[in-house]
Amino acid sequence: MKLSTLQALAAAIEEGSMRGAAKRVGVSQPALTKMIRELEIELAAPLLVRTSQGVVPTAQGQVMFEHALKITKELSIATDQVRQLSGDMRGELNIGAVPLAVLLLLPETIRTFGQAFPNIKLRVSEELYIAQLQRLRSGQVDIAVGGIPEDMSSGEFVTEKLMDTTMVVVVRQGSPRAKAKSLSALADAKWVYTGASTESGYAKQLFESHGLKAPPVGAVVNSTLALLSLVGAGDYVGLLPIQIATHPLAAQFISIVPVAETGLPLTVGVIIRSHSVVSPAIRHFIAHLHRAVHQVATTTN
Predict the structure, then answer these.
(1) Which domain holds residue 120?
(2) Per-residue pLDDT tens digits for 254-298
(3) What is the C-alpha separation between 259 and 41, in angstroms, rounded?
(4) What per-residue confidence (pLDDT) applies to 129?
(5) pLDDT, tens digit, 9 for 90 and up, residues 176-187
(6) In CATH, what number is assigned to the domain containing residue 197?
(7) How confident is the model at residue 151 (pLDDT cuts 50, 70, 90)?
(8) Residue 100 · residue 162 · CB < 8 Å
């Protein structure tokens, strides 16, 4: 089974036509048809179905397509890493980051890293902790920048601390709950939980850290924008990193509730897969993240 044949199959499925695939791969249409036919014979299974609109994958073809994409991507990553180790700093870096990192750290990191390594293409996606780990596991992102829980397994991931923050209680501007002096006064409020489930929500962690029962779940979101929208426009209570809660954009809609209890501490850091090769591009990006942290600390002190 040749890589060129898998690339031909992937092109046919993505283009939806043999003609478009042949043009993309750089071979004649009969040659591309022959390549895919030979693959079907090798696998003893049909991979494509021809329709009046073009071609679509069979169930078997979809399986091969998904694995072909993974193989092609892994080969591309390997090629980039070999070049980088030889001093040719080019390629692509995919970063998943929590909103706090996107707001405070990434603008400066991307600026300085981009100046130093203009041939490294950066792709940034904003997502919360659970989504980050899922994408990190699957190889969709190379680096995750987000909260590092104390109970994170050290076997699957390697972490490196960047900064500490505190999650504070927030409500909409003008809410009567903005005058609450304790968490117990908010125990009957509708709380916005962040994460994949209520079991991992920051609100639950905050209450339990002070010996209180977890508050009612008003909504579960996996987006800071969704949390801001719910809290800013409704009778919800939520938790946000203090740097976001005090940012001028957020402060137009929300207020920090001055409860007596301390906020929920959170360590923000870099997370990478423990069994993957750390490329020079990843090492340099982490170094630039640390520089951005230092600049933020210098600016705010």
Answers:
(1) 89-163+267-300
(2) 999 999 999 999 889 999 888 777 888 899 999 999 999 988 877
(3) 69
(4) 62
(5) 999 999 999 999
(6) 3.40.190.10
(7) low
(8) no
DSSP string spanning the chain?
--HHHHHHHHHHHHHSSHHHHHHHHTS-HHHHHHHHHHHHHHHTS--EEEETTEEEE-HHHHHHHHHHHHHHHHHHHHHHHHHHHTT---EEEEEEE-HHHHHHTHHHHHHHHHHH-TTEEEEEEE--HHHHHHHHHHTS-SEEEEE--TT--TTTEEEEEEEEEEEEEEEETT-GGGG--SGGGGTTSEEEEESSSGGG-HHHHHHHHTT-PPPPEEEEES-HHHHHHHHHHSSEEEEEEHHHHTSHHHHTTEEE---SS--EEEEEEEEEETTS---HHHHHHHHHHHHHHHHHHHHH-
pLDDT band at 195 (very low <50, low <70, confident <90, very high): low
Task: Looking at the structure, tell me whether residues 208 and 291 fall in a common domain.
Answer: no
Max Cα-Cα span within the chain: 75
**Per-residue pLDDT tens digits for 37-96:** 999 999 999 999 988 888 999 999 999 998 888 888 778 778 888 887 888 888 889 998
Domain boundary among 65, 84, 103: 84
What confidence score (pLDDT) does residue 72 get? Answer: 81
Q: Minimal CA–CA distance to 84: which of 286, 287, 279?
A: 279
**In this predicted structure, what is the pLDDT of residue 210?**
95
β-partners of residue 274 are: none
Residues 234 and 185 in one domain: yes
What's the angle, vertex CA 245, arms to CA 239 and CA 247, rounded to 5? 160
For the chain, how many structural domains are there in total?
3
In a shared domain, residues 9 and 50: yes
Select from 63, 84, 105 the last residue of a domain: 84
